[in-house]
Each structure stands twice: as C-alpha cells, then as structure tokens.
User: What shape does this take?
Amino acid sequence: MEPQGRAAYERLGLNARQIDTVARATPKRDYYFQSARGNRLFELGLREVTLAFAGVSQAEDLKQLEAVRAQANDDGFAPAWLRERQLDWAADLIRPEQDRRVEHEDAAAEALA
Assistant: This one.
C-alpha cells in the first residue's frame, strides 16, 4: 500500500493490523466493516454485470461511460455499456423498451377482455 493510502486509513482510525488487512483485500470485491461489535473483512459478492455499472470509478472509465451514454438513447444505454465492457451475453438479455411496452399493453388488453 502506498504511504498516502496508509495515512488516509490512519486518519480514519485504523491501526496497523487493520490497514494490513485492507491492503491484502481485493479492490471492488472485499470490504472492511467496523462497528462497536467488531471488525470484519467481507466479500460483497458483486458479479461482473453489477460491477460493470457500480464498479466504475476510474477517471478513464467514467469518460468512457459518458461517451457511451452520449451516443446511446435512454433505452439503449445499458446494453451499449455492457457491450463496451465486453459483456455481450448480458446485453443480449436486455429487450428494447418498445418490446416491453407492447408486451405490457397486450397483457393489459387481455386482462380487460
């Protein structure tokens, strides 16, 4: 761990052992929890599709996300971003909003019939 990172954790009140635990953790997978009842390193269990959205924090990735968002319409952003992150299989599972709207209208018409 870089000295400035260690200093930041010290300012948060972590001791040397806790900082070493955090240093060995896997970024964006392992998290360190502190409470009055104890401390624990745990895995949040986020998978690749969730991380494609929730795990974007680097400046370069954020620029890439903004570029994709600017090119895609509202309905097309999620599949476009997943494809950008090389998760084509997940993008293929997302149906366009128009398809969902028609399906919903058909179901409503059937219910009223």
In short: Residues 3-43 form one domain. Strands lie at 30-35, 38-43.
